[in-house]
Write a structure and sequence with these properties.
The chain is of the alpha/beta class. It has helices spanning about 5-20, 35-50, 70-80, 90-110, 125-135, 150-160, 175-185, 205-215, 260-265, 310-325, 330-350, 380-395, 410-415, 440-460, and strands at about 115-120, 140-145, 165, 190-195, 220-225, 255-260, 270-275, 355-360, 365-370, 405-410, 425-430. The chain binds pyridoxal-5'-phosphate.
Length: about 450
């Protein structure tokens, strides 16, 4: 797809549409000083050059990539109108599109027809809403989250004055269901938050086990699938293409959050929360004297904590899903599958390499690994990891971007008995392979990192 053609199309569509409304005297505020604009633009673009190359497969550091060109064109067209999906008449077409994309995402999880949901500014607000609803249902009870969960849950619990209990994770980073059961036996847990795709290692909590526990103990399950939710697309085959087949269990959970701005090809400002039981919509009721009602329908402003929300975000997602549908073998599915194959391929390369150790087998497209210095202790792993991270990023001719993950050293050592524990905390390397272009680039990433690891180990005689 040629983005130039479609940005052109987005601009000329708006020009033509505006032209249909009749002419009116222009206002001088639209004019700007040309030389000032030129200078500002030059400075602006120069400063933007200071970014890391998120678009390039050599960047595999954090959960960052540019939106799909289709999303950019869709956003640009709607943004010029600037509809506000706060209320139905803030932008009827994009409000209708929001309902359609929410329906598609509920279908992706195999959630029931009546599922209620809406887009949000991101995963943080979406999770906050899910816990806010959970508090309405269990005002006196606590929220249980894995110690590997995103820190947003702790903040949300604090805001909502909910008690939060942390459940230990197993060595691979999944919530330990036995530890959860011990807590459930106390009878004080109202909601369990599970993560599908943890930020650190990309692991998926044992959703099926926790669903079984729910039958015995009765509690609410909220799934934070901000990162990993879209991989549910690949979980429904007879032989699922995603190692984490637990993702299917989301269909039976009470609420779920997924971020189209992570794996849904969208620019930032697009999260989504879904509730299995539409009755929870009643908690949002408000009587605002100035909210405009043109419809008897429950409009999206009535089921959202946020007020103003970009209609352009809904429009961009709608257009994207028209072109790249939520299907396992068409549209988004193959894009996600390429990242899974990249992680799997790189993991197997690492297993064949003396100087790098795989931490855990990737459940999604996030890979964790660390150098194996000759004197194999946690302290040395930490030193080499930090040096490799910096050297790889700062190389002036062929940089490679990975990230650092902090982990508990005893967990690392239990998985890797040869590693001597001489420090409590470990610093290991982490890669997020969220671009399909990574599939044909991981060999280069691997070779480059091996080169740097070996150089650091031999230079430092570690
Ligand atoms: C990204 C993420 C969040 C936070 O979402 P934002 O969109 O950054 O606000 C929460 N939980 C998980 C698992 C995430 O990956």
């Amino acid at each position: 797809m040629n983005l130039h053609d479609y940005t052109e199309a987005a601009l000329s569509f708006i020009e033509a549409w505006e032209g249909e409304w009749g002419s009116y005297p222009a206002h001088s505020s639209r004019n700007v000083d040309t030389s000032r604009l030129e200078a500002a633009w030059t400075e602006y673009t120069e400063r933007l050059r200071g970014n890391y190359p998120f678009f390039h497969p050599r960047y595999a550091g954090q959960m960052l990539k540019p939106p799909h060109p289709v999303a950019i064109a869709g956003y640009l067209a709607a943004m010029q109108i600037n509809p506000n999906n706060h209320a139905l008449d803030g932008g009827p077409p994009t409000a209708a599109m929001e309902k359609e994309v929410v329906r598609q995402m509920a279908d992706m999880f195999h959630l029931p027809e009546e599922t209620l949901g809406h887009l949000t500014g991101g995963g943080t607000v979406a999770n906050l809403e899910a816990l806010w609803v959970a508090r309405h249902l269990h005002p006196e009870k606590s929220v249980a989250v894995s110690e590997e969960a995103h820190y947003t849950h702790e903040r949300a619990a604090d805001l909502l004055k909910l008690e939060l209990v942390k459940i230990p994770a197993d060595r691979t980073g999944r919530m330990d269901p036995d530890a959860l059961e011990l807590e459930l036996k106390k009878g004080s847990v109202g909601t369990v938050v599970l993560t599908a795709g943890t930020t650190g290692r990309g692991t998926v909590d044992p959703i099926d086990d926790v669903l079984r526990l729910r039958e015995r103990y009765g509690f609410r399950i909220h799934v934070d699938a901000a990162y990993g939710g879209f991989f549910a697309l690949l979980a429904w085959d007879d032989s699922p293409r995603v190692p984490a087949s637990d993702l299917r269990g989301i269909a039976r959970c009470d609420s779920v959050v997924v971020d189209p701005h992570k794996h849904g090809l969208q620019p930032y400002g697009c999260g989504c929360v879904l509730f299995r039981d539409p009755e929870v919509g009643t908690f949002y009721q408000h009587e605002s004297p100035y909210t405009y009602f043109t419809s008897d329908e429950l409009h999206l402003g009535e089921i959202s904590l946020e007020c103003s929300r970009p209609g352009a975000a809904a429009g961009a997602l709608w257009l994207t899903l028209r072109v790249l549908p939520l299907e396992p073998d068409d549209g988004l599915g193959p894009i996600l599958a390429a990242g899974l194959r990249a992680a799997d391929r790189w993991a197997r390369q690492i297993q064949r390499t003396e100087t790098i150790q795989l931490h855990v087998k990737p459940a999604l497209d996030i890979l964790t690994f660390y150098p194996r210095p000759g004197h194999y202790t946690v302290e040395n792993v930490n030193r080499v990891s930090q040096c490799v991270f910096e050297a790889a990023m700062n190389d002036s001719t062929d940089p490679v971007y990975v990230s650092i993950l902090r982990a508990k050293a005893d967990e690392l050592c239990r998985l890797d008995p040869e590693l001597e524990q001489d420090a409590p905390r470990a610093r290991i390397l982490r890669s997020v392979l969220m671009k399909p272009t990574h599939e044909n680039y991981v060999d280069r990433l691997h070779d480059r990192l091996v080169e740097i690891v070996e150089r650091v180990i031999s230079c430092g005689r570690i």
